[in-house]
Amino acid sequence: MSQPARQEVMTMEEAPPRAVAITDTAAIVQMIERAASNPAVDIDKMERLLEMQERVFARNARGAFASAFAAMQQDLPTIRERGRGDKGMKYALWEDVNDAIKPVLGQHGFGISFKIARINDRLAVTAILSHREGHSEETTIELPLDTSGSKNAVQAVGSSTSYGKRYAAQAILNLTSRDGAEKDDDGRAGGGAPRITDEQAMDLRDLATSVEADLPRFLRFMQVQSLADLPATKFDAAVKALESKRAR
After folding, report:
1. pTM greater than the 0.85 cutoff
2. DSSP string, 118-165
3. What are the residue boundaries of the structural domains of the chain, listed by start?
4. Following CA atoms 204, 103, 222, 228 in sequence, which dihedral angle do they give, to the nearest 10 degrees?
5. Domain 83-177 class?
6. Over 50: is that where the pLDDT of 104 sits?
7. Angle between helices 17-36 and 43-73 (to 10 degrees)
């Protein structure tokens, strides 16, 4: 085999799957364009070509979803358990879960939404994880209405919805949570030190956005799972760290 021919074979073999997918898509689009401009092509053939295009697009979207999801797993945080249930059982609050995962989801091109349905005396909460390439996956959690603590009907639905979002999000993202009172090996639990205020947390989030900081990376640098977990004694250091990025 001559050297030029060998080089061509190596290039095709070593081409990344994404490049092959793009080539397949472009080829089908060109085929459809040629067919659409040919008056001899009947409607049935056009429909089959369009169905083929949809299958290729769906396959590429599934591949992009799987690749991005695998990359995202290592960036998803462990959620601190601050909620208190029956018999002192601890759990992660949905507010904490949502605050912790939103920056990571956005960084990897994902978004999460929910569908709520009433099934007799139970509530079904469906988490839908969507990727920017178009593919989505979903999982559904069914649970009884939370009537504990003398809740009225509206409060029972609201409480169960919050529980359902937490359980469904944890299931579809493979999240873990841990008792916030426990100390990790690297001390990330923060002990019982006072946390920054909600206003300070918002100020830090706005500052991080203005300097285009990588928020998940910044949180790891500050050794916390969310901005709300930042000890008050570290607020000035956090501001200085973000401001230093602006100066670069």
Report:
1. no
2. EETTEEEEEEEEEETTS-EEEEEEEEE---GGG--HHHHHHHHHHHHH
3. 3-71, 83-177, 190-248
4. 60
5. alpha beta
6. yes
7. 160
